Amino acid sequence: MTPGTFATLAAGLVTFSAAFGIGKIAASAMEGIARQPEASAKIQTAMLIAAALIEGVALFCAVICFLALNK
After folding, report:
1. What is the mean pLDDT of residues 36-59?
2. Cα 39 to chain center, whole Å?
3. Nearest one of 48, 11, 17 to 40, comparing CA atoms
4. Fold of 3-70
5. Cα 56 off chain centre by
6. How far apart are the first and last CA of the chain?
7. Which of 1, 25, 49, 53 has the greatest number of C-beta atoms within 10 Å?
8. Is residue 38 over pLDDT 80?
């Protein structure tokens, strides 16, 4: 397997994993807000922080994949 192929597959896996993680967080947050509407502000804040952390890790992994592609 060439480094370009590996980097392309890894970038796709990172994108899929980040989308799955953020979708799971959003679904859980919506369920939590539906069960306890009075806690919606705290749930929404925690959801946004978790989504930002996932996006940060995904961006870092994507940059590493593209650096491997250009190596």
Report:
1. 95
2. 24
3. 48
4. F1FO ATP Synthase (1.20.20)
5. 8
6. 15
7. 25
8. yes
